[in-house]
Design a protein that fits this description.
mainly alpha; 8 helices; 80% helix
Length: 182
């Protein structure tokens, strides 16, 4: 478990959502948690203080091995960042004006964008689509989880229009989930 989350921490460039492809891979290969558990991890991690990736790793470790697993995965996910930031600081201090270094960082941006986009699409698939029901019925009307899709669209429209604090959207979504039985 340490090695799996260490790799995620080492290669998930771009923040917490960039850890999602790694979590999906760990889930598929190990069975420690399901895709549905990942959706829950995201929901809980988004609504609790702290970095998203760290919260998800803690949740995944707790889900798989209890309290020791939560601590273990948190440490394993953050260890690469501590090591890398220490090394990067040393290098940046020495080679602050390097064109090569600037190009390296510029090249990492598309990879981070792709990882985050893939994670977002994976979450949308779990939260908004009912693929098993669609496979059973073949009816396009059963493809979407309509209440969830409508809630997501309403929250998105409110985000664009009002720019309220994120906790307000989280609270509204949680209340809607309770009220609508999502």
């Amino acid at each position: 478990m340490f090695w799996e989350f260490f790799k995620a921490g080492l290669f998930a460039v771009g923040g917490g959502l960039a850890t999602l492809p790694f979590l999906y891979d760990i889930s598929q290969r190990t069975g420690w948690f399901s895709a549905e558990d990942i959706a829950n991890m995201i929901a809980i991690s988004e609504s609790t203080p702290g970095p998203l990736g760290v919260n998800m790793a803690t949740y995944a470790g707790f889900q798989a091995m209890g309290m020791p697993g939560g601590i273990y995965t948190t440490l394993s996910l953050t260890a690469p960042a501590i090591i890398i930031i220490s090394l990067v600081y040393t290098v940046l201090k020495k080679y602050r004006e390097s064109d090569t270094l600037s190009r390296i960082f510029y090249g990492l941006r598309p990879a981070s964008t792709a990882l985050i986009a893939a994670a977002g699409l994976g979450v949308a698939k779990i939260a908004l689509l009912d693929l098993p029901l669609f496979a059973d019925t073949g009816s396009l009307s059963t493809l979407f989880r309509w209440p969830s899709l409508i809630l997501a669209l309403v929250i998105y429209a409110a985000l664009v229009k009002f720019r309220w604090h994120p906790i307000i959207y989280i609270a509204i979504s949680a209340a809607a989930g309770i009220a609508l039985g999502l």
